[in-house]
């Protein structure tokens, strides 16, 4: 799978995504829940805020086309190495968000888990630093 050119994003798109930082850092936020209706397989139901966030990532060109499965080691490094996320550039953040959104399709509840852990808020805080540097 060849990477396709990544469309640019500007301050407007970044601000639209950053609007979720205060939402995702409010005390008691629920990102979703596991449901097990009788006679059905259990599934993870994202909260409205999470669904709106994913829609915003697509709308504002944060979800990019690239070979995200082969990028898993880098995504794990950015999640687990202290300070690694603090050095990430805008494209890396977009790839990381894309990886989490796409991984959720194959590993139900993945996005809820990385939201719950604070990792997505950390990505958004790094995005905020990059945005502030744009003026």
Helix-strand blueprint:
Blueprint: H1 11-18, H2 21-24, E1 32-35, E2 43-46, H3 48-59, H4 72-80, H5 90-106, H6 110-116, H7 119-134
Antiparallel strand pairs: 1-2
Helix pairs in contact: 1-7, 5-6, 5-7
Descriptive notes:
- With 135 residues, the protein is mostly helical.
- It has one domain (11-134).
- It has helices at residues 11-18, 21-24, 48-59, 72-80, 90-106, 110-116, 119-134, and strands at 32-35, 43-46.
- Strands 1-2 form a two-stranded antiparallel ribbon.
- The longest helix has 17 residues, at 90-106.
- The relative contact order is 0.18.
Q: How would you summarize this macromolecular structure in one to three sentences?
A:
With 135 residues, the chain is mainly α. It is 54% helix and 6% strand. A hairpin with a 7-residue loop joins strand 1 (32-35) and strand 2 (43-46).
Largest sheet: 2 strands, antiparallel
Q: Strand pairing plus helix content: what structural class? A: mainly alpha
Total domain units? 1
Q: How are strands sequenced across the largest beta sheet?
A: 1-2
**What would the average pLDDT be, to the nearest integer?**
94
Q: Cα distance, first to last residue?
A: 36 Å
Order of helices and strands: HHEEHHHHH
User: How many helical stretches?
Assistant: 7
Q: Give the helix proportion (percent range).
A: 40-55%
**Poorly predicted tracts of residues:** none
Shape call: globular
Q: Quote the beta fraction.
A: 5-15%
Instruction: Count the beta strands.
Output: 2
- The value of Rg in angstroms is 15 Å
